[in-house]
Amino acid sequence: MTVAPSAPDAARIDAARARAPLAFRKPLCHRLIRALFWAGSAALFLWCLIAFDITPQRIATGLSRLGNIFSFMFPPHVWTTWREFSEVLKGLGETLSMAFLGTVLGALAAFPLSFLGARNINRLPLLRFSTRRLYDLIRAVETLILALIFIRAFGLGPLAGILAIAVSEVGTFAKLFSEAIENTSRRPVEGVTAAGGSGLQAVRFGVMPQVMPVILSILLYNFESNVRSGTILGIVGAGGIGFLLSDRIAAYRWDEVWSIIILIILMVYLIDWFSGLIRSRLVGATA
Amino acid sequence: MTLADINPPLHGAPAMARFRTDFAQARTRARLRWWTGLGVFAALCLLTAWLGEFFKVTQVTMPDGSRDWRWIIPAGLPRLGEYLSKTIPELRWSSLGADLAAWFWRWRIWLELLWETILIAWMATVVGVTGGFLLSFPAARNLSPHPAVTWFIRRWLEIARTVPELVWALIFVFAFSVGPMAGVLAIGIHSCGSLGKLYSEVNENIDMRPLEGVRAAGGTWFDQIRYGAVPQVLPNIISYTLLRFEINVRSSSIVGYVGAGGLGQEIRTAMSLQEYTDLSALFVIVLVTVIVIDHLSGKLRHRVIEAET
After folding, report:
1. CA–CA separation, A223 vs A173, rounded Å?
2. Helix (H, G, I), strand (E, B) or coil at B201
3. Does residue A287 surpass a pLDDT of 50?
4. Nearest CA in chain A to B267
5. Is the link from the previous residue into B147 a cis peptide, with omega within 30 of 0?
6. Residues A115, A129: Cα–Cα separation, whole Å
7. Domain, as residue range, for A191
8. What's the predicted TM-score (pTM) here?
9. How many angstroms separate the CA atoms of B215 and B79, rounded?
10. Which residue ranges does the record assign to the ABC transmembrane type-1 domain (chain A) (predicted)?
């Protein structure tokens, strides 16, 4: 603070400090724990710097090399022939396809599974518990590892990426969908049963209209994030723009690398903008 | 023209007839919209399936030794099963200890690399939190010192989180050579981007009155942030940070695949040397670590939330 307290203020502050010392100063054990936490963190950080061999000299050479790479960014590379440009376009299209089809297939598989994990649909605690642990297990596996496995089975190409995204999304979607189902109101369901509807009809006309907007918004959101993760699957060989990117990095063609990165950023922007548009329309339609 | 001409009285047979035509029209419109939507969706599915090589045919070896062309999905599924079954280690009750020892035969190296993986995640979280925290205040519209500063910081945060960690890792491996340093920087920059965005959203939802109070008492911009904003956002920031640490542990077990340190390099070696049981052992190690860390940090997060509310 820039303003110094005047003399009467200082006296009043002293009086307040005498009356309620804890408001001015935390108790000793709190301060000790805090000091230990920061000291421990600082020590670990220093130890990491030594263990990871992060020296000023290494940082300097790295930064100069990084600056060298960045200098290729201007002007960005422009593909002049259609053959080269169509390769990049095909990569972008493959990445989008991987994200789209992976999301759709994952959702199709997760939808029936999610009913098994919802407390208000599945009344068997043991089955529900085991289904939920299954979702957790699927979610714990990295998409990249799945892609590596699928590449061994289905060969290099976007198909391995589609399947990897689909399988890893099954766990996420099943969890999110079943939470959405659990958050529905019971009253429409009771209404359908009171009018003589079967259990299936209660789900169709009582639960579905409530969860559909939530599910659509989850799908859109995960499609966005799958476009991002789809780019990295290419780096291990699952097709798409990531494959071109890692290929160009391996060949040290940094000017093309930057152009591809710019295109990826543009694509992600466009997708985010577009799905934001759809989401606001969906919310407007249901609200 | 009177009002009755525009809005004819709604009773009797004419009203019923009008309701019927209106309802039929609405039904037709809804049905049309549904079928167009379905058509567009189906076309998109077909297009993406074609682009994604979903309908590729591949050569397979038939039981009698001849080669034939088959659709890739049924052709690949047995290969997938074969691959997965190869990764399952042989464990017998009679010699469980020896079998486990054979399965985790490189456990010394793997434990060392696991420790490195966790440290990479921790360092990256420190880098990301420091960067994200400092940038989140000028990036929030209500706290920003100048709109141009906000614009530049927001673009930087977007680039940092849109470029995947693995791409940052590839670039940093080239610049800083192979090793955990590249991994720390790659995950750190990506965390900085995502955390900066999340923190700045928290910052935009704070109560502005404490800041006004600090300004009225003569505080500078830094004083306003330090005494007005930080105490409000701290619990949320701690919670996001712990979540990010969980994500970073997963990432740091992967970045080694491109040479940026941690367990990922062993995964790559096991893949290329076709050491199938090593793969499952590494998978078990990563899975257990991720579950334990998620559990611990989840507990810590709940304590933070409870302490503040």
Report:
1. 11
2. helix
3. no
4. A145
5. no
6. 12
7. 84-283
8. 0.82
9. 68
10. 92-275
**Quick one: how far is CA A245 from the chain centroid?**
21
Domain-embedded: residue A273 = yes
Q: How far apart are the first and last CA of chain A?
A: 48
Put simply, the answer to whether B258 touches A41 (Cβ < 8 Å) is no
* C-alpha–C-alpha distance, residues A190 and A202, integer Å: 8
CB contact under 8 A, B122 and A239: no
Q: What is the pLDDT averaged over residues B133-147?
A: 88
Which CATH number does the domain housing residue A220 bear? 1.10.3720.10
Give the type of residue at B119: L
Query: Would you say residue A141 lies in a domain?
Result: yes
ipTM for the complex shown: 0.80
Enter the tokens of residue A258: 């930057």
Q: Do B180 and A52 touch (CB under 8 A)?
A: yes
Rounded to an integer, what distance in angstroms lies between the CA atom of residue A27 and that of residue A221? Answer: 46
**Interatomic CA distance for residues B309 and B298, integer angstroms:** 17
Cα–Cα distance, B246 to A231 (Å, whole number): 22
Question: What integer pLDDT is reported at residue B164 of this predicted model?
Answer: 86
Closest CA to A41 of B209, B123, B59: B123
- Cα–Cα distance, B78 to B61 (Å, whole number): 12
pLDDT tier at A132, thresholds 50, 70, 90: confident
- In angstroms, the CA A59 to CA A67 distance is 12
One-letter amino acid at A158 equals P
By three-state DSSP, how is residue A35 classified? helix
Give the position of tokens 């993986």.
B117
Domain membership of residue A255 (yes or no) is yes
Tokens of A80: 């002049």
**What is the number of structural domains in chain A?**
1
**Which domains can be identified in chain B, with CATH numbers?**
40-76 (no CATH), 106-307 (1.10.3720.10)
Which long-range contacts (C-beta less than 8 Å, at least 24 apart) are formed by B278-286?
B278/B106, B279/B87, B280/B87, B280/B88, B280/B89, B280/B103, B281/B89, B281/B103, B281/B104, B281/B110, B282/B110, B283/A141, B283/A145, B283/B87, B285/B110, B285/B114, B286/A142, B286/B253
Tell me the two tokens of residue B145: 């010192």
Residue B77: closest C-alpha in chain A: A153
Yes or no: say if B301 and B308 are a contact pair by the CB < 8 Å rule.
no
The residue of chain B nearest to residue A140, with distances taken between CA atoms, is B287
